[in-house]
Amino acid sequence: MNATAAVGHPVEAALADQPARGLYGWIATVDHKRIGILYLLTTLVFFVLGGGEALLMRIQLARPNNTFLSPDAFDQMFTMHGTTMIFLVVMPTLIGLANYLVPLMIGARDMAFPRLNALSFWLLPCGGLLLHFSLLAGGAPAVGWFSYAPLSETPYASTQGVDYWTLSLLVLGIGSVAASINLIATILTQRAPGLTIRRLPLFVWMIFVNSFLVILALPALNAAIVMLFIDRHLGTHFFAPANGGSAVLWQHFFWAFGHPEVYIMALPAFGIISEVVPVFARRPIFGYEFVAGSTVAIALLSFGVWAHHMFAVGLGHPMDLFFAATSMMIAVPTGIKVFAWSATLWGGAIRLTTAMLFAVAFLIQFTIGGLSGITFAVVPIDWQVTGTYYLVAHFHYVLFGGTFFAIFAGIYYWFPKITGRRLSERLGKLNFWMALIGFNTAFFVQHFLGLMGMARRIYTYPNLPGWGLLNLISTIGAFLLGASVLVLLWNILVSRRRGQPAGDNPWQAWTLEWATTSPPPSHNFDCLPPIRSRRPLWDWAHPENPDPVVGGASARDGFALEKNRVGIATFLISEGCFFVMLILAYLYYNNQVMPGPQPGNTLNPQRTGIYTLCLLASSLTFWLAEKKLRSRNDSAFQWLLTLTIVLGSVFIFGQGREYLHLYHAGTLVNSNLFATTFFTLTGFHGLHVCVGLIGLLIILGLARAGDFKNGRSAAVKSIGLYWHFVDAVWLVVFSVVYLRLLL
Amino acid sequence: MTTQQLMLSAWNWNPWVLAICLAVILAGGWPSRFRFNRLAAWRLAGVSMFFFTLTSPVDALADGYLFSAHMLQHLLLLLVVPPLILLGLPSAPVPNYFKRGPGKWLNGILRQPVATWSLGVGGMWLWHAPVLCNAAVTNGWVHCLQYVSLLLMGFAFWWPIIGPWRRQWLSPLAGMVYLFSACLGCTVLGIIITFAPVEVCSIYLHPVDRLDLLPLLQNQWGLTPAKDQQLGGLLMWVPACLIYFCGIFGLFARWHGDPGDEAVISESPTPNPPLNKAHGH
Amino acid sequence: MVYIQYDLLSGLFGQHLNRLAGVNSLWSKGNMSVGHIPIFQHFSPETASMAHLFTLVLLICGIILLVVIGIIGAGLICFRERPGAGEPRPYFGNRKLELLWTLGPILIVIWLFILTARGMHESDPAANREPDLIVIGHQWWWEVRYPGSGVVTANEIHFPVGQQWLVHLQSADVIHNFWVPALARKMQMIPGMTNHIWLEADAPGTYGGTCAEFCGAGHSWMHFSVIAESPAAFAAWLHRQEGVPTNTVPETARDGRKLFQTLTCINCHSLRGVSATSGIAPDLTSLADRKTVGAGVLSNTETNLFRWLKNPQAIKRGCLMPDLKLTDAQAGSLAAYLEARP
Asked: ipTM of this predicted complex?
């Protein structure tokens, strides 16, 4: 009966492939499937934690003038709830699903960089522990998940909560960026023959686009967090208005990350829905090109809408109007998606499995969240409803009613692939209806609370007519929702052992992950079906009626990219964004004269110019060294490499001298905002130069050991790209900081 | 002066502009005997945008009054007129005179995306160096040079995306990266202009009121110099990026509309696994 | 005609909310308690414009939602899997339909954008003169200054009905958000920056306001009220605030005055004629006039003030006024003194 087993590896054989079993096997694993499972399990723990925090808050709010939680405890709860759910649950769950599924869906053996993959996973528990450690170190952060300065500055948040928050987010941010770089490299370079980019399953396409959002948006957060950390620990005043800093700049930086972040949490969910809805409607997605294109549109627009979080800041009408326009525009591609999913249902043969039920609920709840989102783009309405429970209701409709319902759909859909057994449909239906009723009870009434004037983030409220009742209803709904999650956990536990065996393709789905066994062997595939369209397994099962061939019959598209170059290039894009943020901060603060040291009388452009020439020359020598490497002239290569290192060191020496000079002149990082931004910008660049020098030294060592005798090395190319990047950044920094003084 | 009067009276019938418009219409329409088709529509749109940019009240306002009007002109000349004209050109093979001598050199630039990108984005940045920006407003020749250079840089920028020589088009994904990075470039500049407390073009701070417009602009339109600069920065930031985005969507549509290479038949190199569809039921 | 529909709708919606909240007469004019803030009840031209816009946009969004639910619902009902029937014929999309649901929303968005621009103009006119009022947000109370007369008060804003007042908003510490839903838009108070709003009331009454941006432990109890009164009543109120209060305090409160001066009260609180510290804690000159203590946490009675003085931290956790460990007698006479002052 099981023909696959005849040629493929049975589950046992697949497990025998694993180098190590047991706990150690899991800790040391670099298998994308195991890492994916680790991601999902870890996020499940944090999900329960974050949900528990939410329930504590709902108990406190269940009746007026309640004293269950003190204001400080409540403030810690909502800060932890937001941070946990966003950075420790939604993002890593989606990354974990992508981790498990993307290589399978593109017919690959593993991710492009399996070890980097393990690193990005292990940064997640580290970041999570750092954040929660704050509870033992004087209290969790109590400033809200967006930590508006100056409330998050030392005078107003004196415990170490915010410090742990910044460190944790930095660690998690590095992990997310690493995972995204890996996913981009995987999707660009590891696809099976025939799987051109135009034939990618929509989930993979959306993960691909989403990964770009991550690498472009997270640097903005990292830059802001670094500045906050410097403020708190070196006594500087980036965001302290009393000393010339700007509270508004934090908001700009944070939301420049924060709004793309909303789509980072939504796009993969769209991807899940785009897989689940067609399979259970038994129809291909309606208008693949429009769904794929609208994803690009959302990603692009998401960078230009952040100030709609700031309509109440008083940025002025021109600014508000432009951002209202872009924010409304983003409704168009989102609408395209909703219509496409809905139209996919029509003419199909719908199977209302639990996964499909969650997907349908997603469609409607996400539409509600999206439409209430439109009311926030209409500026005068935003002026009334922002910062109220109407907003809380809105984003929970998007993030819980949307993303989480999609994740639940994805769990029910892919669980058979991951474990080889189906989740119980009976428990699943119970889970679904409890979640649906609980969620809508908890959050729909919050729209009304907001309209009645209940501001968000209040730990209690006076006994006003209606408020107590609506809050109580909301609390009851929240507990029902919490119970539904317990049902899900129970279902997973039970079905994991006793669930109905699933077989390879229980849903008769069409994408490649269903072409292998459930669970897949450690090498994923023994062999792949031919891929000519977006539904290779449909073509396989219906040879009489295959899908039209997409983009011609050629097995490859024009992207013959090498994974190391893709990896380092995307990494450098991310780094570039970080530096853009630092440079913008420098420009922002150095446009007016301020008391204290001035660039004009503390910096010496001519002398720094000479060191700059050294740095630029080092790029040239490295380029020559690479040429020598290609012509197999090893001694010249080593000689030029040494010269590069010397020139780079001269630059660092020059920077050190300049710093020393400033230090003796009494210019310290906290002297004024010029000094702060100058040291931050050049210091981070210097750090990068040092990292580059270490890399070059390693290359030199390897070269001496004779590693590059064959004339090719991805490592040399990667370090080279990095080194040229560092030099290019300096060129910009030099023009912005020093050359400006000469004009 | 009221808004209505301004709209009616402040037109600048520059004979050079009229001559160029006429020349483009004639030269573009001649080969097809002035048949009106899609290409002609694009060309006509491009010519009318060009005409609008340099003769309408926008030009009068840009001439020392409003930084934002100047920015609008800038955007139209760099990002709107060139792509519209290019879209109106029929596709053609690379002519022979671009294969040798100075033509080859020129084509060399047009084939190098880094070069055309730098021209397009650099044009934006270059003319907003305070010295050049002020010079362009005060000196007629610099002003003229600015217009011409913006147009040329615009043509160079869009050439690898929608130029008439299809063989030299960038691949769709590369083209998307090309346009998106350009958008980032002008976003950064837009952000700097929007938030910079110091005026980029100090000339617009104290306009000389030749046309008796200041009361209208500052009281009725509410455009104080600070707001004016903010508006200018926003124009460069948001609408400019939207134009790049349109380009990206165009590329996406072109990519997905491409039927692909139907001639090559290739089998998957791996043998087909005996998939069992009914398995698990 | 269109406006009649708006009003009808917002009326309906308001009533619906009323019913839901079990509120009847409380929402009528002039009877708004602190923190009780229905968005659809508007008492100024600015909020009227916002409420109309909101109603219209909700209507548009509601129709869109119904369309989507209709499409999905009909799809779910009509196209269920039937046993025996094979796989449905693959169908990959319809370019015309896709363009339709791209262009349709674009048109709606353009319409919404025009509405937005008009609404912004109506509900937030530009500032063009010196402010009539300066409100400064503090952790966690509101400093209210009348620049014309030099009067300073806290947590209560008195102003005349029918006049349009320009209010400057500032912050002394962190970001706050000034929000009187019935009268004006929200606006953040940002340290180092001055924002403005227009304040205007159609009818006399007490309108609730609150801080709408999380600002620390006391954020939940950072309410205030706006009291719109007839110009004559307002002038009388202002006059009362301008004069130095008489020093004839009743016998019971004599000790209070001494305590106020000898304990640490005057380090933070100003009291015209007694202490002139400014900007640290609320000015207590007109305390007896106010309706609440502690920015809305208690109603202002002598007993409540006594409770507050005994231990502010027990009533408003985290507030910056320390527990001074007053004896009952001390707290009693201070309360009597402060409540009797005018």
From this structure: 0.90
